[in-house]
Amino acid sequence: MKHPLTNNYRLLGFYALFWAVIGVINIILQVLWYNVPLTYSLLDTGTNYVLYPLLGSSIWYSIRYNSLEEVSIFRLVLFHFIAASILCGIWVYISYAIYSPFISSENNFLKNGLPSKVFAGYVMYTIYLVFFYAVNYYQSLKEKIKKEGEYKALIREAELQALKSQINPHFLFNSLNSISSLTVSDPEKAQEMVINLSTFMRYSLMHNEKEMVSFSRELENIKLYLSIEKVRFGKKLNAEFEIEAHCLNAEIPNMILQPLFENAIKYGVYETTDQVTIKTTCECEGNLLKITIVNDHDSSTAKRKGEGIGLRNIRKRMEIIYNQPDLLKITDLKTSFEVQLIIPQKQALS
Amino acid sequence: MTEKLQTLIIEDEELARNLLRSYLKDQPDIELIGECENGFDGVKAINDKKPDLVFLDIQMPKITGFEMIELLDFKPQIIFTTAYDQYALKAFELNAVDYLLKPFSKDRMIAAIEKVKHHIKNEENNDEKLEELSNFRSGGEFIDRIVVKDRSKIHIITVDQIRYIESLDDYVMIYTYDGRHIKQKTMKFFETNLDPKNFIRIHRSYIVQVDNIAEIQQYEKESYIVILKDSNKTKLKVSKTGYKKIKEVLHF
User: Fold this and answer.
1) CB–CB contact B19 A176 (8 Å)
2) Per residue in A104-143, pLDDT tens?
3) Which of A19, A192, A232, B37 is the most exposed place for a label (fewest CB within 10 A)?
4) Which CATH number covers residue A271?
5) Residue A188 is part of which domain span?
6) What is the three-class DSSP state of B33?
């Protein structure tokens, strides 16, 4: 850490001003009240309030390398006593070197002042010590807060990164298997699926760079995802969308919908032999975009064990982005499963 | 081998079935005798047709490939197929069963069939391997359902329907709210695979659902019984360690 006085000119200014004011008051008091000759007063003030502040600024270095936490009390006291003595010695020596032409053989104000000057030197050292320790503490605190802030931003970033949905390997390999099958039976369809899968993958990779996308873009991607899954599941999987056109411009977090549909397929389509419809509706209410996804759900096969990791991640991601809880609502209605995502908008959608 | 392997495909996805069928079409040792779209049909087909070889998908609707194995009276050679399941792979490797990772090549499939033929020739014990595999749970979590078969009907019992489980030598009797089902499994299996927060092994012979306990009574000096919440007020013996476990779970 740099010296606070050379690093911060405002502080240096205050420092100079402070001692100047004290010095002027001292001169006025000595001359007008105690009838000290002006020359003596100037010399006294100069050594006390100009010379000492100059020398004393070096005390900073003595505290920089003797942090209160790391050094034992005994060492600390000993060190500062020695440092105070040296500084005091130098100060008194220079002071009297300056005085010498003015000190005649008879006792006078300057000559008699020696013991109190030495004492004052130690007292001033102590005051400086406290002052610099305070400055040092303040500076490290400020730095710590700043670092903590940076750290928190980093953590938030990392958390968001981790919460972003990854392409499920199960989905990927099953799709590749479908493609492998189609190359034999229907090469054209295989090609179409390869292209769809690539487009979907590209979109999901892009989301590493961009946090927000338009709802229409995200919806397009979902339709792509569903079309890929439709190839696997055939008639079993049906998707319906009821989207109001004016909602399409809304901003929503990238790839936030895909895990919801993946979930609907996992619990709705995987687990049943019947046809399943995934219905997506949306409405805009003032500054809120509400997206609702409902899928048929066969409750006889298995109980859902609370919230899966996919839904939990979405909830957390929404919480981090919007700094607001409960943006994901889940309703289990025995024969159907409903997920509602509420996405706050900067501006009302019209 | 003079006879062809009677082969069955159990796979829920049509495209995956198509591919397997096309791979198998020109295999001289294979005779495809049927295809099933789900585990229920699969169990029935295996028990009826007694195939030599089954290609079995793990993740299927209603019941999984693993759950299916539990329900088989007759155990054929099985080649498992799966797209991605780390837990299942571990189980396969531990039990040295044959498996194919989707998408797989024809050559890879032929190699698996060759291995099966080798197993059959050496009369390796297949049942034990599959038995062990069926103790394995995909996902490595506590089970949330149990599949049982009464005569020809398959029931899926979700764990919250279980009142208690009683040991009967090599079998267990599972008492649910609407009846009881026998199953060939060990108490140890249920003790380790049911969530211990909800199910307590109160005795060598009993595992009880916590919510189903109405009362715990002192029976003799050092022994206790639990009384269950049913109209018959079923009484079950509690062992010393069982009593300790109940105390732990119910915090008294």
Assistant:
1) no
2) 655 566 667 788 888 888 998 998 889 888 888 888 899 9
3) A192
4) 3.30.565.10
5) 164-344
6) strand
Do residue A169 and residue B84 have CB atoms under 8 angstroms apart?
yes
CA distance B215 to A332: 32
How many folded domains does chain A comprise?
2
Q: How far apart are CA A174 and CA A188, in angstroms?
A: 19
> What is the H or E stretch that residue A191 is in?
helix A187-206
Work out how many CB contacts closer than 8 A connect A with B: 77
Task: Select from B12, B102, B144 the Cβ nearest to the Cβ of A305.
Answer: B144
Interchain proximity A173–B14, CB inside 8 Å: no
Provide the sign of the torsion angle of the four alpha carbons B149, B153, B154, B159, taken in this order.
negative
Is B38 in Cβ contact with A303 (below 8 Å)?
A: no
In chain B, the domains with their CATH numbers are 5-134 (3.40.50.2300), 145-250 (2.40.50.1020)
B153-163 pLDDT tens trace: 888 898 889 99
Residue A63 to chain B, least CA–CA distance (Å): 57
Which member of A179, A181, A273 has the closest CB to residue B61?
A: A273
Distance CA A152, CA A154 (A): 5
Residue A158 makes CB contacts below 8 A (sequence gap 6+) with: none
> Would A349 be classed as within a structural domain?
no
What is the pTM for the complete model shown? 0.70
ipTM: 0.79
Q: Give CA–CA dist A123/A115, Å, rounded.
A: 12
Q: pLDDT confidence of A64, banded at 50, 70, 90?
A: confident
Nearest CA in chain B to A189: B15
Both A68 and A174 in a single domain?
no
Q: Is the Cβ pair B144, A173 closer than 8 Å?
A: no
Instruction: Say what the pLDDT of residue A300 is.
Output: 64
Distance CA(B251)–CA(B94), nearest Å, equals 39
A181 & A49 share domain: no
Could you tell me if residue A248 is inside a domain? yes
Nearest CB to B84 within list A173, A233, A303: A173
